[in-house]
Each structure stands twice: as C-alpha cells, then as structure tokens.
Predict the 3D structure of the following.
Amino acid sequence: MKKEVLKKFTLGGILWTLVIGTLSHFFYQWSGENFLIGLLSPVNETVWEHLKLLFFPTLLYMLAEKAWLEERYPGRFCENLRGLWAGLAVMPVLYYGYTLFTGRDYLWADIGIFVISVLTAFLVPYFYRNRPVGACSLRRNLLVLFVLLILFFLVSVAFMR
C-alpha cells in the first residue's frame, strides 16, 4: 500500500510540475509584468530564471504532499527537498553541457532538459523512500531552501529593474 501511495504522489507531482512549470513560463508576460508574479516565474530567458519553472511548482506540490502525508511518511519532505536540489542541478549542467558543444541552444533540447529535471526532482526521493528517516538533515535542507528563495527573489528584482 505504501508503495502505491508514493507512486501516485510521485506521478502526480511530475504531471503537476510539467503543466504548471510550462505555463509559468508565460505568467510574467500574461500578468502585464506584475512584480509579484515576476518573483515566482521567469522574467527573462536566462537559465537562472528558468530554474523557477522547476523550483516553485515542485516546492508547492511537495509542501502539499507534506501536509497530506507527513504523518504516514515522516521524513518524506526532507527527501523531496533533496530531489528538488538534484533537479535544479541537472538543468544548468545539461544546458551548459550541450551548448558548450553545439555553440547554440535549441528549443527542443531545452524542453527535454526541463522534463529530465522534473523527472529527477521527483524520482530521486521516490527511489530514496526505503532509506532510514535519519539519513536526511531537514535543518540543512531548510537552510538551502531559505537561501535559494532569497536568491531567486533578489535576482528577480535585479532583472525586473
């Protein structure tokens, strides 16, 4: 039963993030360049800003999952955060890796990288599900989360000027 519940939540998170992340690419423009929307969605075409396509939808889903499942699966949120960090690392590594060799970027490759990053963010914690709860430091992961939130907001504000 446990495996089925986590499988459903993992699949739901992947689908949620693919849809909301893709749509959020356009939120800032659709909102008439609203400042608050720009804090949560890309304001330009930099790789840093495109990390928001993964970061905010995934974080929102993982927080909802925490509210629903924390009692039954303690420690899951910490593992989810580690998956998010892995997904965030994959995106620039793959992007800069392929553009280094090709000398340019391709939309189809960028979309593929987004999909791979989403899969990484959700499949890493799914496959870590059998590790002991104590193996993940929630305090350290929350510190990373806080630092990333501050960086996303500061960089967004700089880009919106």
